[in-house]
């Protein structure tokens, strides 16, 4: 086996070790990670609902791809692929270093607090963005040098831009490393706009909702066993303490930081004097750390500002953008490992050092292994969920679906009582109205969807008949209730499906005027144009990927003796 493939193989081993039971039968459902067997391409998925388009374009991509690849298999491919590509990208970014250094940076990249916490939080688009970062540094440097851009650039950009935060992260990297005078930067900007067009345009169509609430203080950087700024240096510090591995709350967080700091310090001078393109890498690190610390230093000021600046709330979960510092950590740590390695004499000490630096990240974060020590696992959806979906598909009455109980997160027994954003709306084939409020500890952050606010007012009516009439005027044609998720308001309607845990009801015909929440023609045209640009980017990326695979096969075939 070629030495070049050793780091990638090591990345695959670490990916399997980290995911563990998550690779078994069933879906991984944890916090914001909600996958279903067959996601329908509804108006909500396209960003045309009344709520903020938080899952644009990721849900639309999944809805299309799971027509070709079953959703269960697609989820496993995404999770394993993100981890392997992250490690392989770090190794490729340091390909001029020793094999020991490249294997070690794979461990540092995969076995990090960021990966563990975002995986547990279910932020799979951010994991793909994290994986894209080192590859985009490579592509940006080639672009800046006037070389031909790699064939894989556009596919990597698409994979790394499946949410707004992910798009900001992956967009910043090629802009920092690749922008130079001339016409070529125009092509780069066009590519970045195309792959981010869906969330940019649908987000602009919801500017009023985007300033409705903020929550910088709730989502601010948090410390673990380390103070928040030091946790950020190690790419940790997520706001949700429930997804922080226990080892990050123990003394092990300190040797983890010291290990990383020692390697970076040992290699900083060598990296600075031996490599070009240092300023953009340093600027990315400063930007990522500054954004993360801003929400920690001045959350209330940012709260006030976000109420007047649409889109600023995208930065409230500020530690999402810490991977901007990943290239600096990888490059300096690799240089540091080689500096230490060169001081060792003899094969045995060098082998011992190689083993230590490859395994040390795992030793200081041991509970990232095997499904985050049981934090994530798999689950099968109850049969009645598919039955309710089928029953709704057969319905001909107009109207969207309201989902009860009126809360956003669930902890179903069939999912091992693990918290997850309610999967029921994604299981259905019609647009859904759900409660967008988020409760973090004792703090409640109001959702931004005006239709959901109106639905909550309708549910507060005195009796089931009045509630149903009010919901009908909002364009709600059906109400589905998960009886296993707690008590909920009763509504009056005809039963379409009833199981041991689910109840699907058809609302009575509307009496009175319909409360309108329609998208205007200009916004519709803009959204259609954004998705068209995105489709073209996908077409070009798919074509380039096929050509790349053909070229690889031809090269391999040519090497085989005839």
Distance between the termini: 21 Å
The spatial strand order of the largest sheet comes to: 4-1-7-9-8
Unreliable stretches (pLDDT < 50, length at least 5) are none
Strand content: 5-15%
Summing up helix and strand content along with how strands pair, one would put the structural category as alpha/beta
Question: Helix coverage percent of residues?
Answer: 40-55%
Radius of gyration: 25 Å
Give the helix tally: 22
- Biggest pleated-sheet summary: 5 strands, mixed
Beta strand count: 9
Mean pLDDT value: 92
What overall form do the CA principal axes indicate? globular
Transmembrane segments: 68-87, 122-139, 151-174, 186-207, 251-269, 281-301, 321-340, 352-373, 522-550
Keywords: Membrane, Transmembrane, Transmembrane helix
What does it look like?
With 562 residues, the chain is of the alpha/beta class. Among the domains are: 211-343, no CATH class; 383-506, no CATH class. It has helices spanning 6-19, 58-65, 71-93, 99-110, 113-121, 124-144, 153-159, 164-178, 184-204, 207-210, 228-233, 253-274, 278-297, 299-306, 326-343, 347-363, 369-374, 383-393, 424-427, 450-459, 464-473, 521-559; strands at residues 400-404, 409-410, 420-421, 432-433, 438-440, 443-445, 476-482, 494-498, 502-506. The strands form 3 sheets. Strands 4-1-7-9-8 form a 5-stranded mixed sheet. α8 runs antiparallel to α13. The chain is globular. The model has no long low-confidence stretch (mean pLDDT 92).
């Amino acid at each position: 086996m070629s030495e070049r493939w050793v780091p990638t193989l090591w990345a695959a081993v670490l990916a399997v070790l980290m995911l563990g039971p998550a690779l078994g039968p069933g879906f991984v459902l944890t916090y914001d990670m909600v996958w279903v067997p067959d996601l329908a391409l509804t108006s909500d998925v396209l960003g045309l609902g009344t709520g903020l388009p938080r899952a644009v374009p990721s849900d639309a991509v999944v809805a299309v791809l799971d027509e070709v690849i079953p959703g269960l298999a697609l989820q496993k491919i995404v999770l394993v692929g993100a981890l392997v590509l992250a490690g392989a990208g770090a190794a490729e970014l340091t390909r001029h270093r020793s094999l020991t250094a490249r294997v070690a940076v794979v461990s540092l990249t995969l076995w990090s607090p960021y990966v563990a916490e975002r995986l547990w939080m279910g932020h799979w688009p951010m994991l793909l963005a994290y994986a894209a970062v080192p590859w985009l540094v490579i592509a940006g440097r080639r672009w800046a040098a006037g070389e031909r851009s790699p064939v894989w650039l556009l596919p990597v950009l698409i994979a790394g831009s499946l949410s707004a935060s992910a798009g900001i992260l992956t967009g910043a990297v090629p802009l920092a490393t690749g922008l130079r005078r001339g016409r070529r930067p125009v092509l780069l900007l066009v590519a970045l706009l195309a792959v981010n067009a869906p969330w940019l345009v649908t987000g602009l169509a919801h500017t009023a909702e985007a300033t409705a609430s903020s929550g910088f203080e709730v989502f601010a950087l948090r410390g673990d066993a380390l103070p928040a700024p030091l946790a950020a240096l190690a790419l940790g510090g997520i706001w949700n303490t429930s997804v922080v591995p226990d080892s990050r709350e123990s003394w092990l967080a300190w040797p983890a930081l010291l290990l990383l700091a020692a390697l970076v310090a040992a290699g900083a001078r060598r990296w600075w004097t031996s490599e070009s393109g240092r300023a953009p890498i340093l600027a990315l690190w400063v930007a990522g750390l500054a954004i993360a610390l801003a929400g920690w230093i001045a959350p209330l000021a940012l709260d006030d500002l976000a109420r007047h600046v649409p889109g600023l709330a995208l930065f409230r979960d500020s530690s999402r953008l810490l991977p901007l510092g990943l290239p600096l950590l990888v490059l300096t740590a690799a240089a540091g490992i080689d500096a230490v390695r060169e001081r060792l004499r003899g094969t045995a000490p060098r082998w011992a050092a190689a083993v230590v630096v490859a395994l040390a990240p795992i030793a200081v974060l041991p509970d990232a292994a095997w499904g985050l020590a049981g934090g994530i696992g798999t689950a099968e959806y109850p049969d009645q969920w598919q039955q309710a979906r089928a029953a709704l598909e057969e319905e001909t009455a107009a109207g969207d679906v309201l989902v009860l109980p009126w809360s956003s997160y669930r902890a179903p027994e069939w999912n091992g009582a693990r918290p997850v954003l309610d999967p029921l709306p994604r299981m259905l084939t019609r647009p859904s109205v759900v409660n967008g409020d988020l409760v973090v500890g004792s703090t409640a952050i109001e959702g931004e969807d005006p239709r959901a606010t109106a639905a909550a007012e309708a549910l507060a009516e005195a009796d089931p008949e009045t509630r149903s009439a009010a919901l009908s005027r909002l364009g709600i044609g059906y109400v589905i209730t998960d009886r296993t998720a707690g008590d909920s308001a009763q509504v009056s309607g005809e039963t379409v499906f009833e199981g041991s845990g689910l109840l699907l009801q058809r609302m009575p015909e509307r009496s009175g005027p319909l409360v309108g929440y329609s998208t205007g023609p200009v916004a519709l045209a803009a959204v259609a144009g954004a998705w068209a640009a995105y489709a073209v980017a996908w077409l070009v990326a798919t074509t380039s990927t096929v050509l790349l695979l053909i070229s690889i096969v031809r090269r391999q075939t040519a090497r085989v003796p005839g």
